[in-house]
Amino acid sequence: MVPVDVGINPGFCDQVDPRLLVIVRSQAENTERRDAIRYTWGGAPGFDVSVAFFLEGLPDAKEAHLYHDMMEARLTPVRWTFAFCRKASLLLVVPDDVFVNVPYLLRFHPANRSLLGDRDRFLVTGDALPLLAEAMDPFQAAQSVGVNVRQLAGLLDSRAPNETCGILQSYTLSGVDTSDQLSYWWAVADPQKCSKKKFPTS
To answer: Which run of H or E residues covers position 59?
Structure first.
């Protein structure tokens, strides 16, 4: 492994204008987790979503050469998004053991100036980004700048063993192994398989 400095990647959104931007917090050594996301919900065509990885540490040069979706976590996710991807209507921040039900989330239309979830997984509306951009802790700053902190059922769900199709009613699931990302994606991409019970088991 040859580590390489990927910087803060300010040009990430130059060629994209996503409705949903997902920032995935990831340790540099978690290459397999990032690849599992890229090959499933983070890289599926036809959805108005872009995925960027905020890294703790330096990634391998080979991965950095193949993909241009990583950056060092020198800024907060909210501040980086406001600075370089401010056209995003929604910002979702998650760790790299989370599955995101992209089709379900894209159908969600939150109230203006909303911050939903908790410090581990949270969703921010685009109009709240400039209000929270300078805050180290958006949840602590939200009330004082007029952003409403809300809860959203299905945003903070956890993986249940042998319940692959449960993802259809969840926005995100935590505790998802690399090998399970594909099973969940199959369920989301073709919900009819769930009704027929024809899907790969986790």
So the answer is: none
Burial 60-94 (b: 16+ CB within 10 A, else e): eeebbeeeebbbbbebbbbbbbbebbeebbbbbbb
Helix, strand, or coil here: 10? coil
Please tell me the distance from the alpha carbon of residue 199 to that of residue 202, in angstroms, as a whole number: 9
CB 116 within 8 A of CB 152: yes
Note the pTM of the prediction, 2 decimals.
0.93
User: What tens digit of pLDDT does each residue of 172-188 get?
Assistant: 999 999 989 998 998 99
**What's the mean per-residue pLDDT of the chain?**
91
Q: What are phi and psi of 25, to 5 degrees?
A: -80, 130
